[in-house]
Amino acid sequence: MKGIxxxxxxxxxVGFEVPIPEVDRVLKRRQRVLRKxxxxxxxxxxxxxxxxxxxxxxxxxxxxxxxxxxTLTTVERTRRAFAQLVAPGDGRLDGNLDHAALLIAQAIxxxxxxxxxxxxxxxxxxxxxxxxxxxxxxxxxxxxxxxPAVHFSGNQHQYYxxxxxxxxxxxxxxxxxxxxxxxxxxEIGRRLGIHLHGVGMPGHFLVRSRDGFIDPFNGGxxxxxxxxxxxxxxxxxxxxxxxxxxxxxxxxxxxxKRMLFNLAAIGTNQQQRRALHATRCLLATFxxxxxxxxxxxAYAAAEIGQFREAAxxxxxxxxxxxxxxxxxxxxxxxxxxxxxx
Length: 341
Fold this sequence. Notes:
Layout: E1 6-9, E2 14-17, H1 20-31, H2 48-60, H3 72-86, H4 97-108, H5 114-127, H6 133-141, E3 153-154, H7 167-173, E4 175-176, H8 178-191, E5 197-199, E6 206-209, E7 212-215, E8 221-223, H9 225-236, H10 252-269, H11 273-283, H12 291-303, H13 307-318, H14 323-338
């Protein structure tokens, strides 16, 4: 692959393709933070990608302000559309991943026009002519020949800027984080007949193809499976081991959920109540939403004065909430409903 250095790490006993200066700069900056990823080895395959990124964002997000562009009417309309999309359950979507990502963006930014944004993806796909996953990755991300004026980049300097998680802003700025750039790659690939899967490796989202694992955040470089294990050790520490199943395909609805968890964590840190309400509202639409997610939705709604919505969301939580706190939550519901009089 032109411009990509093939490296054989002595401690790895495996060769994998990676532009060493770019990756080393990113990984060294993040290594101390992402040692927390090692704790994910005790979690289930389904849980660890969400918990790790949520935890990192909660501790380290800088003060980047989310524009208060959402409206309650848009959020409710988007909530209904999103609920229909995730209704199949078990990680499936009744539609495509780009639609889910753009509904998330629309819940936070009411100016998002879904049809226009989908057309932008169509045009981008039409401008490329790849026949393999590797060619597609190079076309979008550039590899060692990366040009920020032409290719999409990982936002290394403002990693927790919420715009990095909103697909329309990724298209506007050509900047994103691993998971949003992965969604872009997967959906452009789908339009071109190139089959790709998201992979929720703890701490760093990848894309799996027939040719290997693609890292959209670092120029679209490719790894084999052993290279992924080596990357994880560099992120989490020499003794860290990937959990079983960590390189399996992440179902599309779980990718959307992970994006929402990231945005909720950023919204909490930056005290963006409307953005947090929008993300909590969508998280509560998943068929497997827990009582905790319904309660979080309720309190987020109450924070912006939507007491009817808060009470309704909390009542959903009553169905499965532990008995020890059932009475306390019912009292809170009564207080919210009393404010409607």
